[in-house]
Structure formats: C-alpha cells, structure tokens
Amino acid sequence: MSKTKRFFSGLLTIVVLVVALVVWIVLPWFAVAAIALAVAAWLAFTRSGALALAATRIGIAGLPQRWGASSVIVIGIAGVVGVLVAMLAMGEGFKATLSNTGGSDTAIILRGGSQAETNSVITRDQEPLVSNLPGIRRGADGRPVSSPELSQVVNLPSKADGTDTNVQFRGVGPSAWALRPNLKIVEGRRFTPGMREMVVGRGAQHQFAGLEVGKQVRLANQAWTVVGAFESGDSHESELWADVDVLGPTYQRSAYQSVTVALDGKNGFKQLAAALAADPRLKLDAMTTHDYYAKQSEALTKFLRILGIVIGTIMAVGAIFGALNSMYAAVAGRSREIATMRALGFRGSPVVVAVMLETMLLALLGGLLGALVAWLAFNGHTVSTLGNNFSQVVFQFRVSPALLWTGLKWALGIGLVGGLFPALRAARLPVTEALRAA
Fold first, then answer.
1. Any stretches that span the bilayer, and where are they (predicted)?
2. pLDDT in tens, 5-50
C-alpha cells in the first residue's frame, strides 16, 4: 500500500510541477513585471524582505563552494532554453520568409477550392479572360500587368550530401519582374523569352549544386543554361525561373497553374474578387499574394511550435528534477547554516524566499547562457525544408527578442518550480535537530 501511495504521490508531484510551469509560461509580460515589482517592493520595504535579502547574500556567497551542484542547474536549464529557442526560431524564420513574399498590391488567382499552386489548373483559354478583369492594373503600354505561371518540381543534388532534392522550377510571364519589384538580378542577366535559359535564386544557389551562372543544368532531357542569379529576400529565392512558354511544352504542360496580377488601387482586389464570382465560366478564386504565402506557412509553423514546446517541456521536467536534487542537496549541506539563521530570528518566509531567489538566480544564468548559445549558433543559420508545393524552401533561423524572452521565462519557471520544495523543506527544518546533526 505504501508503494502505491508513493507512486501516486510522485505522479501528483509531476503533474503539479508541469501545471505550475505551464501557468508561469502563459503569463503575459505585464503580469511577470507586476510579480517582479511586488517581490522587489516586499524585499525593499519590509523587515521580512530585508531578512530574506540578507539570507540570500549568505547563500550566494557560498555558491563557489557548491559549484558542482550549481553548474548542474545552470547547464541543465541552458540546454532547455537553447533547444526551445532553436526550435521556435526555425518556425519563426520559415514564417517570416513566406510572410515577406508578396504584398497587398498583387493577387494570385487559382482554380476554385485550390489551397496551393500544385493542385490548381487554369486553362490557356481562361488566361485572357482573367487578365482583362476589372481591378487589374494596366501598365504604361495599356496592357494588364499579369503573369500566367506554372510550377514544376524538379530534382537537383544538394550541396550538403549530394542527394536529390526537390526544387521549384517556376515558369513566368513577361510581367513577372514588374510584379516582384524586390527581385533584383545580382549576377548575370535575365533569361531571354523563348530561349531555354533560367535565372536562379541565391538561396537555391547556396543549397543546391550546379547552379552557378554560366553552367548548364540538364532537366527533362534538355540542357538549360543558368544566365543569372537574383535576390528577393523571400521564398522566391529558393526557386529557378524560366519563360513559362518554354517550360510548359518541355514538361508537356498545356495549362497554367496560377495567374499573378497587379491590383488597381485600394479597391482593386474587391473589384477582382467580385468579377471572378460573377463569371460562371471561370470558377476561380483570388487572394492577395501576401495572404496566400502567409497561409502556406501556417501548418509547418504550428507544427514546429508544438514540437518545440513538447520537447522543451520534456527537457524542462528533467531540468526541474535536476534542480530539485541539487537544491535539496544544497539545503541538506547548509542545514547548520539555516538552523543558525533560524535561531537568530529568521522566520520561515525569509528562508523560503532566500532559497527561491538563489535558485532563480542560477536559473537566470542558465537561461541567459542558453539564449546566448541559441543566438550565436542559430540566428541567421540557413536551412531548407519542404513547403506546401513539395519543393524546398530556403530560409534562415530567426532568433527574435520575443523568442529570447520566451526562453528566459522558461528558465525562470524551471527555477521557480525547482526551488519551491527545497525552500519549503529549509523553512520547516527543526532548529534543534539541525544543530544537533551538525
């Protein structure tokens, strides 16, 4: 029976620790600031607070003698924060790359109900009807700024390990350059319409082999010449571009997948959407390009966030128990010191706060170390992953201040929970027994 009780008692302790950590993590920054100000005021303006500060100074002064146990807490929490921030930074980087693609002044038109270009079809006889719809801006030559496009997934060897990797080969119309003004040719030139030439994004160049300007790439049993490289700061940097009227026949594609258009003023999108809905021949939907690419990032970003939190929680539970063991050992080793303070008039609350502050200080050091390592190792690190079109999207990890703050909250939460039970034990330590044992 005692074993059963101990089992359920231990299980209840784990549940309490996890719940306490979750509650702390979800607190908004102003709630954390309010708690910190309340504790600071108590320490500064009350007698118990002054005693707690004095006891904390004594504990901190003894940390060098307990560097082994202290380093367990610091390193354990640093590991949790480093892994958590790195996982979340991956999701943030992917989301930022796709969110930076497109804008509110352009729209992408897909087949009705399609979630991505890969499952959309726009026939060639529909394209002239689409391009002349109201809401689409016209250029200086009086023609609509419209680019019929298709996307073909091709395989290229990865520079990392030489394995075949999916890459998006995009066929674009003449207006594609005007629709993406942030896209700049940084080496070579644009492809010549009607020729089997391509330009490649810098991100694709860095990740995949054989894309240097001047080289030829064999795709669909045809030789394509790389004539230029471009930068755009968004997901298009992961792509290869060519003339849509050359790419389509090469892959026996008789239809387009999307039409990207420039919108005519603030009401352009409303006019375009209304015109599409009113024409039963088309059965097409439109979205602003910003909304379309932001939507493409939702699923993976959510998955990476959940995965990071799950892994972080598992590691955090381990770090909490490491902190518990270390602080229990520290309290046991300082039993005579704590008993002496109690005999001198230190009540339970100052002792509890002193042990808690000591643990929180170690947790803060671990959090700062983990955040620093994550920032130095991962911020700006370039990787690629599969996007919704089953091709690689090249992006950079993004370690933002918000993520660093999240990591520090986790660190302080681990310290808060990990120091609670040892602090309560220290406060309940019988003075006479502790002095006699010492």
1. 7-27, 33-55, 67-90, 306-331, 351-378, 402-424
2. 766 766 776 677 677 777 887 888 888 889 889 989 988 888 888 8
Upper half-sphere CA count for residue 414 (Cβ side, 13 Å): 35
Where do the structural domains in the chain lie, given as residue ranges?
27-99+297-437, 113-282
Separation of alpha carbons 362 and 379, rounded Å: 25
| SS3 at position 113 | coil
Q: Give the DSSP H or E segment for 82.
A: helix 67-99
Rounded CA separation 148/128 (Å): 10
Q: Which pLDDT belongs to residue 386?
A: 59
| Predicted confidence (pLDDT) per residue in 355-366, tens digit | 888 888 888 999
Within 100-148, where are the H helices? Answer: 127-131
Q: Please, what is the average pLDDT of the chain?
A: 84
Structure tokens at 178: 């005007």
Residue 338's nearest CA partner among 202, 224, 267, 437 is 437
- What is the token pair recorded at 200? 């490649």
Is residue 242 pLDDT above 60, yes or no?
yes
Distances (CA, A) of 375 to 46, 307, 378, 379, 408: 39, 19, 6, 5, 13
| 3-class DSSP assignment, residue 279 | coil
- Integer Cα distance of 176 and 128 in angstroms: 16
Task: Report how far residue 347's alpha carbon sits from residue 341's, in angstroms, rounded to the nearest whole number.
Answer: 8
For residues 88 and 304, the answer to whether their CB atoms sit within 8 Å is yes
C-alpha–C-alpha distance, residues 377 and 369, integer Å:
12
The C-alpha atoms of residue 419 and residue 319 are separated, in whole angstroms, by 11
More confident position, 387 or 192 = 192
CB 426 within 8 A of CB 352: yes
